[in-house]
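tl;dr need the bound structure. longer version: we got a ligand (manganese (II) ion) that a collaborator sent over and nobodys looked at where it sits. i said id run it. heres the input, straight from their email, havent touched it
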Amino acid sequence: MNLTKNVKLLAWVEAMTKLCKPDSVRWCDGSQTEADELCRLLVKGGTFIPLPKRPGSFLCRSNPADVARSEDRTFICCKEEINAGPTNKWADPVAMKKELLARFDGCMKGRTMFVIPFSMGPIGSPISHIGVELTDSPYVVVNMRIMTRMGQAVLDALGNGEFVPCLHSVGCPLAPGQKDVAWPCQADAANKYIVHFPEERSIWSFGSGYGGNALLGKKCFALRIASSMARDQGWLAEHMLILGLTNPQGEKIYVAAAFPSACGKTNLAMLQPSLPGWKAECVGDDIAWMKFGEDGRLYAINPEAGFFGVAPGTSMRTNPNAMKALEKNCIFTNVAQTPDGDVWWEDMTDEQPPHLTSWTNKPWAPGSNEKAAHPNARYTAPISQCPVADPAYNDPKGVPISAILFGGRRPATVPLVFEAFNWQYGTLLGSMQASETTAAATGMVGQLRHDPMAMLPFCGYNMGDYFAHWLKIGRTAKDQGKLPRIFFVNWFRKGHDGKFLWPGFGENCRVLKWIFERVKGTSKAVESAIGHLPMPGALDVTGLNLSHASLHELLHVDPKGWLADIESLKLQNAKFGDRFPKELTHELHELEKRLVNLEVTV
Ligand code: OXD
Ligand code: MN
């Protein structure tokens, strides 16, 4: 039953029903009864397997051709190609609409079209925005119920207001009497379309049922469409975790951090500090929307209500808080199954179980050539179940951000931590971010890729303009002194023996402690060519079995490595032509001069 009088919404649902021709239309109320009914349906259809060890939880295996975000089928369709920029795949909006209309025509025959009203961010927050997703996938509905605030309460908050229309179909109509498969999707990559129309603020997604391709509130809305809304409206939509950090004296700050996909964002967001008396609490693990408050500070909300985290590598050692959040009411996609009806993935336990059923539904045993879980296997879990959920994660005001961290997976060159001289130089550092690619997207793994602000696959417009927007945020801040301080971190630096130099995980709180103390003005730094590095002794390494040589290497500035990075960066920046801000060219030039001076002195 639908309880809205929103004229635009009613007209759009009617038009899309005519186009997609579903057998029925169902407005989702977001209730537990509705979710239970859909999960029963998914079990009956063979999509879900109940997990007796985890109440309210299910295992799901996708089609092996539909396991990650399809970046090369992701389009930004604005009128002028230049406004999508060189890092996005552009298509003409008129031609693309025509192509999509042909695909969507009758695509939901034999299926139900679900109408999912959802709020990105706490309902009613001045930083939140509303979307409505139409989908023929009940798997998407039950995931959206965890990942967003969804249902009737959102329609009530929407009234006659604006929403982002998000149309999704797995693209597999059913003929009368045709039996459905467990994971309908278009197996041919070329038949998938993840399409954004930033000028009309709408999303059309066809052919995939997986993650960011199908849960349209996440990457499509909260990053690609929201980044272009943020540019127009003077705020920031970023690929960042948000965490609260409290020192032993009870003082608290909030930090936002941008890392590329599968670089440990979720682990940092739920960090269990190893230092006595320090507390870290999680507001979000993937996306931050930030707006200036009346007091001139940047306030952040997490637009999501759940985690869609990478399962492999998650364990009681690496992320005990995530493990605890996964005990009930979760959906596990493409993990392995144990004979006693539980889930397993690589590195979840020290010992591999002797017998499993792999994510491809085959018997699996240690030593097998294939992975038991897909490297991009995911869990969907409510934030409310995270034992270290921050008390303010649902606060409509958001949380004031004191520091922004950039980082990536860099085996060499980039020190463990350093601080930018100011916002403008910090923006340059963000624009220089690079990381090794991971399994979160289809394509090669382990290649160094330039990924500015970890937004490369997620910025909905020309990234040259995006850098200019960051500079404008800094320039137009009411009070420059209240802007977050910008830091760069790298947990992944390796020594000459190829081993990680830094223990990472809970020990990362030592780096956060230095950042906390920089914000409070109590810790010392030395100025270097690239920024402020911790003064010897300022980074708390007590109790860590870290040699002097390793610490030296971790904080060492290698001018040759930096200058080589700058050369490849110049090639990247040149692609933006005159859209690349002059201020950043100047900052880069100054950095280069400082590094050349350093090179001649070492
Ligand atoms: C994600 C990603 O799923 O960044 O969060 O790929
Ligand atoms: Mn992400």
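gonna send this back to them w/ a short note. Residues 69, 211-212, 261, 286, 308, 440 surround oxalic acid (ligand 1) (CB under 6 Å).
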